[in-house]
Amino acid sequence: DAGVTQSPTHLIKTRGQQVTLRCSPKSGHDTVSWYQQALGQGPQFIFQYYEEEERQRGNFPDRFSGHQFPNYSSELNVNALLLGDSALYLCASSPRESGANVLTFGAGSRLTVL
Amino acid sequence: AQKVTQAQTEISVVEKEDVTLDCVYETRDTTYYLFWYKQPPSGELVFLIRRNSFDEQNEISGRYSWNFQKSTSSFNFTITASQVVDSAVYFCALSEAWSGNNDMRFGAGTRLTVKP
After folding, report:
1. Using alpha carbons only, what angle is made at residue A93 by residues A92 and A99, rounded to the nearest 5 degrees?
2. Is B104 left (phi over 0), alpha (psi -120 to 50) or beta?
3. Measured between alpha carbons, how far is A44 from A93 in angstroms, rounded to an integer?
4. Which of B47, B51, B104 to mutate to test the interface with A (most CBs of A within 10 A)?
5. How far, in Å, CA of B53 to CA of A29, rounded?
């Protein structure tokens, strides 16, 4: 049973460009969350998707947007890239039952902005 | 506002030593959840434990144990007889009950190096 899969694993972009990161949740999970992890820091919550809608959002600008598809997979889009967007982007999935479910994380997409 | 503090940035021990990773949290909620995750070099966060705020019983799982003390807002993690494979970054995290797992707040992490 595959866990959370993310693509690409590594990518390099230049300032001002746009990037799309992809995530397939663990089988049986319908909720996807995205986190940004800067070097040497803990992950920071970007947003969560359920039923193809953004349900909650962390303190990130509108340059960060997302989408969830009917098969529960998700994309994270970042526009007008800044040097400070360089980070490991982690996708996590969970089932929708109420309460603080355990998140299953992917290995991340490492974005470098030059 | 919720906050998690892991004061130890890096810890280095020799194999078979015991090591404790500290975690202190802040929250205004009376109902919340605490977590520990391990992040090996591969990058994937691996779940270790979840505790809710009403369960202050300490827990032991093999070489791992957790000490939850609401009076000091701490949720410390001890590895007994450490092994080289324990080398990783460990994160403590907090989630307030009203948000479920929507906005899990992580500490900055503690990098543990276990030398042979």
Report:
1. 110
2. beta
3. 15
4. B104
5. 25
Query: CB of A78 within 8 A of CB of A67?
Result: no
pLDDT digit string (tens) for chain A, length 114 residues: 679 999 999 999 999 999 999 999 999 899 999 999 999 999 999 999 989 999 889 999 999 999 999 999 999 999 999 999 999 999 999 887 655 578 899 999 999 999
CA distance B29 to chain A (A): 14
Is the Cβ pair B33, A56 closer than 8 Å?
A: no
* Secondary structure (3-state) at A33: strand
* Residue count of chain B: 116
Written as one letter, the residue type at A7 is: S
Chain centroid to Cα B14, Å, comes to: 20
Rounded Cα gap, residues B44 and B52, in angstroms: 24
Q: Cβ of B48 under 8 Å from any chain A Cβ?
A: no
What is the token pair recorded at A72? 């529960």
Cα separation of B24 and B99, whole Å?
A: 20
